[in-house]
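Marked as duplicate of an earlier ticket. Keeping the data here for the record.
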Amino acid sequence: MVAKPQATDWRIEKLVLSSDAGRVNADGWWRAAGRTQQTRLDVSLDAQEAGAMLKRFGFADVMRGAPTTIKGQLDWPGAPSDFDPTALSGALKVEVGSGQFTKIEPGIGKLLGVLSLQALPRRIALDFRDVFSEGFAFDRIDGNVRIARGVMTTDDLKLVGPAARVDITGEANLALETQNLAVRVLPALSTTLSTGAAGAALLLLAANPLVAAAVGAGTLLAQKVMKDPLEQMFAYDYRVTGSWSDPVVERVGSRPVGEAAVAATVTPPAAVPAPAPTPTAPTLRHPRHRAAPRNDGIRAMTARAFGVAAVQMVSGGDVAANLAQAGSLVAAAARGGASLVLLPEYFGILGTHASDKVRLAERDGDGPQQAFLSRTAREHGIVLVGGSVPIASDDPARVRSACLAYGADGSRLARYDKIHLFRFAHGDEAYDETRTIERGAEVVAFDAPFGRIGLTICYDLRFPELYRALGDCALVCVPSAFTWTTGSAHWHLLLRARAVENQTWVLAAAQGGVHENGRRTYGHSMLVDPWGEVAAERIEDGPGVVAGLCDPARTEEVRAKLPAHAHRVAWSISPRRCVRPA
C-alpha cells in the first residue's frame, strides 16, 4: 500500500492485494478528519480462478474455474481497515467466465450454501436434483451492481449457460442476509446438458436467485436435438424472497416470446365443474383394414414447432387426490408453454386391487375423470391427452382402458381403447390385464392444430405393426405404467425403436415410483426425436413434468438424409410364404 497525506486526508495511490489466486488493485481516498471518517476506492479485481480466490477466504472446494473481473467504486464509513459489507456503497461491473460450483453444505457459508444448488430443488415443483447434484455450471456472467448502505441492487445481471440464460433484477440486503429478486429464465438447448450460476465473492452476494431460477426451469426444456435457444419461445419468471439460508422461491408464471408458444398466452377462465361435452366422432381405423400410410412426409406436421409435455405421476386409489395432483402438474406444463400435455396410464386410479378400476368405471361421456380432462383442457387452452380412463363395457367384470384426447375448447377429439393387454409373470410378480380389461379393436389417430397425433397405451409399445397402422404422424403418445422389471429392461429400447422406424416424435408419460399397492413402476417419462435420440427425460421417481419441443425441421432433416419413411413397401403374407406385390 502506498499513501500520502494531503491536509487532513490521505491519498491512497496504490493498494495491492496479490496472491497466486488473483489480484486486487485499488486507489482512492481516506478522509480521516472529523468525526465521520470515510474511505472511497476505485477497485479492480482479477482472478484467474474465482474458486482458488474463495479458498483464500476460507471457502475451500466450493467452485471450479470462473475467471473473474470486477471493476468499480466502493466506499464505506471509517478507515480502510474498517471495511464493513453491511455499510458498503458503490457500483460494480462484474464479468465472470465459465466455471462451476461444487458440492458444498449450507453450513459452510449461508450464501454459498444456497448457491451450491443442493438445497433448492425441493423448493421447486419441477424437481431437477439429478441435473444439479454435481454442481451448477455456467459459461458467462455479466452485469452491473449498485450498492447503497449495504443493499445491493441490479437491473441487468445476466447469466448465460448451455441450458439457459437468466436475467435478474432486484436487491439483496447484506446486513439482513435477505433478498427480493425477480428472475427470468430463458431456456436454451445444446448438445450437452448443463446450466449456469454465479462466481466471484462480491457477485455471489447478488446472484443467489440464480439457483432457484435455473433449478426451476433451466433444464426444463433442455434437449439435444435443438440448435437455437428457446428464448425464442418461452420465458419463465420467478420471485425469490426470504433469507439466504432459507430462500422462498415462487414461480410466478411464464411468458411466450415467439409464435410457437401461442398456447401459453391463453388466459384460463374460472374453473367451473361441468359434465364432459358430447363426444365428437374420433378418427378410427381397424387394424385388420388399415389405411395405407401417408407418405407425404412433413405435411403430417405443422410448419411450426410446438411444445409438448409428459406428466409423470405415482397414482393411488383416491381419484380426487390423483386428479388434484394431475391438475397441478398440467397447469405447470401449460405455464411452460406446452400446446399438448400427456397424462400417464391410470392417472386417475391405480388402486390396491386391479378390480378397483372396474368399481370406479365411468360411462362414456360422463364421469369425474372425463369431466376433469375436458375442463382442464379448456382452462389452459391446450390439447390434453388422458393416458387411460376406465370406461364401462358390456362385460360388468371388465372395462375398456380408454386414452381420451380433448381440445382447447374442452371437446373430445378422440378415444382409443387399448388393444394389447399386458400379461407378465416373474417369480412373485404377476399381472394379467385380461381379467379386468376388455381389449379394443381400432387404431386411432386424430388431427390436432399442430399435426396428426397417434394414440397408443403402454403394452402397445411392443407391437410395431400398430405404429405402422397409425400412418404418418407428427407425434405418437405412449401413456404407460411399465413395471420396474420390464421398464428397466426394455423401456428406452422400445421407445427409441418406435421413433426410429416411424421417423416421428414419441412422447411417453409414465407412472414412476412405489404405489400404495406395493407395485413399483419404472417412470423415466421422456420425449424421443425421429432419429431416436432422447430429447428430454425425467430420471428420478415421483411426480414431475418433462417438456420439450417437437420441431418439424428435425423430422424433415431425418427423413431427408435417410428417407426410409418413403421407402416402405406393402407386403402380403400367406401361410407358406411372404410375397412382395408386383
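See parent ticket for discussion. Residues 484-502 form the longest helix (19 residues).
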